[in-house]
Amino acid sequence: MIAISRSGRSLEIVNLLAKARARRAIVIGITNSSDGTLAREAQIAIVVPTKVDHAISVNTYSTLAAAAGALASATSGSFDANFAASLLASIAETEPRIADWRKQIADSAWFTPGKFTYFLGRGGSMGSCHEARLLWEEGAKSPATAMGTGSFRHGPQEIVNGDARFGLWIDAQRMREQDLSVARDLRRLGASLLLIGHDLPERSAGLVFQLPAVPPDWQFLIDVIPAQLAAEYLARLQGVDCDSFRLCSYIVDGEFGLMNEEVATRTKGS
To answer: C-alpha angle 74/79/84, rounded to 5°?
Structure first.
């Protein structure tokens, strides 16, 4: 069993470890915290030493995703020195693009407070898709939905109108032309569209984030970065603090209610 957790102390992880222990399962734990329950109880602990985010998972999300991907590739025999070098080259090429992405975001009309947002993706980018939804909800304090692009075509597309805002990940190989046709139709229907991918047509959306080339199936490692920047910008645009929780505990370690103890005390009698 492979368990992934930033703190290794969340209630679901602790309960899962107890069940795994009872069944004598071998647990590989991927975590950022060496003192968490996951690191202490997993038979094989992979602790990724990165600076823990103040609240919302950004650094920790990417490092845990990288470690899980490396584990999968190593298990299949495809992770060697040459592959690692190509991956590091893609990451190095990503860094200088961040300033351009920030400028694109600041100049874009895609960011309008109060609009509902759908994030769509396939394959490894589904992780980025769901992470973007969480960043929207936790950081920008704004509702969002994440789902597979194929699933969206089976009914939910009925919500598309001029108020709709979409973020769509385009894979470099998988279902590329099909998803670009979805993007074209969303624009024809009046939706505001953001696209993330490699070598995309420049006029395929109102906001296009061009990714550097990256090894197949590893696009997820860099294609979440534009969404992270976008969530931070939307939070500032809406006047909310993207780096702290209003209600949620940093680590959810109980089953009751929504508010942590500090918030519950502050709002008592309201």
So the answer is: 135
* C-alpha span between 123 and 242 (Å, rounded): 28
pTM of the model: 0.87
Chain segment 149-205, per-residue pLDDT in tens = 999 999 899 999 988 999 999 998 889 999 999 999 999 999 999 999 999 998 888
Domain coordinates in residue numbering, the chain: 87-238
Q: Tell me the CATH number for domain 87-238.
A: 3.40.50.10490
Nearest alpha-carbon partner for 48 in 7, 86, 76, 109: 7
Count other Cβ atoms within 10 Å, centred on residue 44. Answer: 11
Residue 129 · residue 146 · CB < 8 Å: yes
Task: Please state the φ and ψ torsions of residue 99, each to the nearest 5 degrees.
Answer: -60, -40
Q: Coil, helix or strand for 38?
A: helix
